[in-house]
Write a structure and sequence with these properties.
mainly alpha; 2 domains; 8 helices; globular; binds zinc ion
Length: 137
């Protein structure tokens, strides 16, 4: 009896958690995916993704941008797109817009987000979009 009550309270608290905490698991997945992509592109992952910037605090933005560019060129187009999507998803988690459908503004189900965290459309809008794409072909 008490156990059931405790569990219910925990669930309620979880629902009220801050967005960043709510999607903590997804964020970790995204970061893992990003790290894997970067590793694939020949970047050595050390203590963290921002290691370069930490090691060279005097590096100008210009130089950093150039380094980023050179690095990006080494990534295949498909990977670049995915990396961009991952970065955008991470950004949405940080600014609190993650999990909202870009098209209808409804909340995307956690299950869908978990399976495909870079998505910006709920399943209804995605299905609609795919149907429209099929019609155009
Ligand atoms: Zn939608």
């Amino acid at each position: 009896m008490l156990g059931t009550l405790c569990r219910k309270v925990t669930v309620d608290m979880a629902a009220e958690k801050h967005l960043e905490e709510k999607y903590d698991e997804i964020r970790k997945d995204l970061e893992k995916q990003k790290a894997a992509l970067l590793a694939e592109a020949g970047m050595i992952i050390g203590t963290g993704l921002n290691q370069d910037k930490l090691n060279f605090p005097d590096m100008t933005d210009q130089a950093a941008a150039e380094a980023d560019n050179n690095f990006t060129l080494r990534l295949k187009e498909r990977e670049q797109k995915l990396l961009k999507k991952i970065d955008e998803a991470l950004e949405r988690i940080a600014n609190g817009t993650f999990g909202m459908c870009e098209s209808c503004g409804e909340e995307i189900s956690y299950k869908r987000l978990h399976a495909r965290p870079v998505t910006t459309l709920c399943i209804e809008c995605k299905t609609k979009q795919e149907e429209e794409e099929k019609l155009r072909e």
